[in-house]
Amino acid sequence: MSSTSNKIAFITGASAGIGAACAEVFAREGYNLLLAARRVDRIEELAARLHAAYGIDTHLLSLDVRDADAVFSSVENLPAAWKKIDVLVNNAGLSQGLDPIHEGDIGDWDRMIDTNIKGLLYVTRAVSPGMAARQSGHIINVGSIAGKQVYANGGVYCATKFAVDALSQGMRIDLLDKGIKVTAIHPGMVETEFSEVRFKGDKTRAKSVYLNLEPLVAEDIAEAVWFTASRPKHVNINDMLIMPTAQANATTVVRNK
Ligand code: NDP
Ligand code: 8X3
Question: How far is the CA of 13 from the centre of ligand 1 (A)?
């Protein structure tokens, strides 16, 4: 490996938005990167750019986090040099639809629950035993303001992010004597592909979410993730809620006229 730090960060959902921005920041800080996503062409492009810019090494995983077998075999079959994962950023996630509960699409519910809850659990279950054996590691889960407050028509997405909050608290207890830090990062509105994915490619509707206000950008969250990852050994940031200045809570924003 060419990086000087020899530390490894495993970032899920690295092909876009917050995950890609985290990859950039960890690369800047000299980490070698395990990058996972379904869109491999995107992580290939990112890996080449980060190698050229920062001289770090990458190992790419074409991975759907909903596929438990694929998650476990990908981690089990990592080359020896990539097995010692220092930081896991459980970022892969999505929202699908914005519908009242009596009209919700069951396929949407399954995709959100399978990705945001079960996928995060599979990756954590695959990676955490190695960290526990080494008595060292940091798991950073990307939750949401939607994991703190429920909003209309978003009940199922919010439930998945409440689950991320609960799982983060549970992991922190279970992994306390294993030398593993657990952090939950809860962003408010971040302009990424998130809303386009939620509205299934409807770019106009996605854009309207951020109309006349200044949302966060993915880099804002990546810098916060890095802040938590770079604290001294005796310091753990349990929980961080980060909003655009124009957003007070899940449902209250101020827009310029
Ligand atoms: P993007 O849509 O820009 O990125 C989502 C990432 O997740 C992509 O890299 C995508 O990769 C990956 N992903 C989705 N489903 C899967 C899957 N089944 N297997 C593997 N990877 C998957 O959105 P964001 O960057 O905004 O979202 C990142 C995280 O931040 C999510 O957990 C989201 O819930 C959370 N969040 C986002 C907020 C926002 O306002 N944007 C606010 C609060 C939280 P690919 O499609 O290539 O597999
Ligand atoms: C994404 C932010 O407010 O759309 O988690 O749920 S929100």
Answer: 6
